[in-house]
Write a structure and sequence with these properties.
Blueprint lengths: L9 H7 L21 H9 L4 E10 L4 E6 L4 E5 L11 E5 L4 E4 L2 E4 L1 E2 L2
Amino acid sequence: MNTPLPHLSSVEVTERAVCMCAHGGVCSSLAPGHSLHLIQARLASATPTRWADAIVTEIDRVDGTIGLRELTGATRTVWHAGSVDVTVGAPVALHRDYDVLAVGRVQYNVAPLS
């Protein structure tokens, strides 16, 4: 006979999904600016014409903001909860629809601020 699995309430599940990046752990939140969801990454790769090439103009590692200047001249500011391995002047790509920042082969879920 199998032992039935305990039922977890939605409150318990929500509490366990709290973002750990503020505590130095692996981020468990899929909210904008946190962990990149597999579907988000696949949708971004399936729509290659929506990527915009950009240059990093500023980085604030304290509050997690990254300033970007697209090659068209448009400027954007994005936010990521964790650490993004990028330097000022580095070329990056930003997906306009799915808010994915690509730094080389590494992709990050970012929250657009402007």
